Model the fold of this input.
Amino acid sequence: MKRYIKTIGLLILSLVAFSACQVGFVPEGVKEQKPLKNFQEVKWLRESLYSTLRGAESPGNLFLGDMQADLYNLTASDGNTYFPFYSWNEANLRTNDMIATYFGSFSTIIKDANYFIMRVNEMKENEELMKTLNERNKKSLDTYIAEARTLRALAHYRLMCRFSKRYSDNDGQEPGIILMKEYDPLLEKTSKKRATQKEVYEWCLNELEEASENIPTKQEYLDSEDNLLRQDGIPCYLIKDYCYAVRARIFLEMHRYQDAIKEVDRFITNYPLGESTPAGLKKLWITEDSPEIMIKTYAANLGKIGAVGGILHGLFPYSETDPDTGDETWATASSPTWFPNQYLIDLYDKSTDGDPANAIQDIRRTVWFETTGTMPGVFYYKAYGAKVKIVTKFRGNPRLDADSTMHRFSFAHSTHLFDIAEAWLIKAEAEAWSGDWTAAKTTLETFRASRNLTSSLNATNQQQMMETVKNERTRELIGMGTRLTDLKRWGDPMDRENKPVQDGLTKGKAATTITPYLNLNVKPDDLKKDNGKESERPGYMFYWEFPLQDCFANPELEHNWK
Done:
């Protein structure tokens, strides 16, 4: 059997994981680092930014944080690839290539955005060159610079989530990350010391607000020449609402709840929630034409352009050749590495937030999960003692299949930059944490109706509502890499106790043999003990250490893990 696994485009980023200290990298489309000569070179440089963004923001990259969390079990088929994350192995994670790749993906966005801004501003100062541009192209330069500023702010936010501790109560004076405001790969003009959390986030908020002034609304985008690349009426380049969405994320991390609510209210009504049916939910990640999708990066040509590989399902196409005829036959197999634990499954099946009888109507449990042995045409390795559920939320968009008639499925999808469900969850969390738990209840009940959950929530006080919000965020954002950052923001421990393995994973070749870590309990850095129980791993591992090469390149960089 030949096994063909569609690799995630993100893996290419491993080649530039050391981007923070690599000077020679030149964005695609420009042969050497020199001033831009024409508008076409500007567009090439812009596309290189979106190409990097596509991989960096894909679930395959963002899921890295979830590997350390409490929602999945790792099987023996892992081969020690992800085991350091699941076991919180400090020695290995200090030098882990996947963390370096994650850091590199967003550092590359920052560096390329700064390079783009520098070169386009040079172009705008060249009077002779500007005479060759028509008025539409001149206006586009301002829009493209605003896009670069937005992506630069997004990348700083992503790095803050994973490389800085929980936003502090002392006005954000804890170390954040190095603030890269201009193209300066050798840090000759930029401070080599980490800015404070507040300094980083305040700068990002200002960048996003200013950039939004030159970025089109959704309707303006759809009426523009970029409309040629729209997909199902969904933009594939940045729009104004995205600036507001990233600002809302930042306000939530800063615990500025009223600001988060105001920011969400600037755009939430522009994107209606989908139909409360399985067919309606499939439009989100299967056909990818849901009105809930704010922006999805461009993907076409049978998955050859712009698609990213799905995660968690373990599905892959393989071929067998008949030894007599030489005919090649394609089929599908599945061998997942990560399986949802019973706790996660029960969040859908046995919800305690509303009427348990209504919980079984949650369309996410039927659309985003499938059971081994029940999917037509899929071969499973004989590794399970019983049927088990796998997450198939990202099984892929059929329109991106290489050749479905030949059973050659790509299991690929677009990268969603923002789906409106997250806005409802941000608003509900901000309302609950700020004390207005009745408003949070209304917000969440409105959202849950779109997932076919029509029963009233049981919460009768703020604490209950906070737990309800946590559960709903976990259900909706499964596989999106938010869990560890959420636990850090909430100040909650990473606790796998009382979160059992699915019965079918306790036997067979894929049994979870890493039993010492099934009950792992780790307290955040700002918690001491919980019910008299010590943390089993250092709390500072809720956020990562900077890549080794960056620590070597910058001796002034303050480390996270002392």
User: Anything to note?
Assistant: DSSP finds 20 helices and 14 strands in the chain.
